[in-house]
Amino acid sequence: MRKKLNILFIEDDEIEVMKLNRTLSSLELKHIFHEAQDGEMALDILKSNQSLPDIIFLDLNMPKMNGIEFLRNLKANDVLKYIPTVILTTSNNRKDVLECYRIGVSGYIIKPLKYDDYVTKIKAVLEYWSLNELIKA
User: Fold this and answer.
1) Residues 6 or more apart from 62 whose CB is under 8 A from it?
2) Which residue has the higher pLDDT, 48 or 97?
3) Strand (E) or helix (H) holding 9
4) Model-level pTM?
């Protein structure tokens, strides 16, 4: 059975936030959606919120605290480290990919240029994680 997911999207580009919202609406997915503009804001949300997300979509290129720094902080926290985190970025830099997997990312998706390809990828990720048994620490 598919679950309604609580999603945290960490992205500084408002157009990307609108694109993910549009995708969720077009797919008629009723997931709960929260956003943070950078890693610092996301950590504040995670540490103050009693309702942790089921999944995090994380951009790498952000001000203040980039995605890799955020990921290091997340995975060092005994409660937060279990939250599946999927990188959603334009960076196809092999060094970034390897570092994210070394730290413990759950997936790495390069944002496609075509909107239809974006929708297909987001749909696949959300279907997969909505079927998983997720850990609530």
Assistant:
1) 10, 11, 12, 37, 38, 39, 70
2) 97
3) strand 6-10
4) 0.91
Tell me the CATH number of domain 6-129, given options 3.40.50.11420, 3.40.50.2300, 3.20.20.70, 1.10.10.60: 3.40.50.2300
Cβ contacts of 18 within 8 Å, gap of 6 or more: none
**Alpha-helix residue ranges (DSSP H) falling in the chain:** 14-26, 39-48, 67-75, 94-103, 115-131
pLDDT digit string, tens, across residues 36-88: 999 999 999 998 867 799 999 999 998 888 999 999 999 999 989 999 999 99
CB of 84 closer than 8 Å to CB of 134? yes
CA angle 126, 55, 52 (to 5 degrees): 140
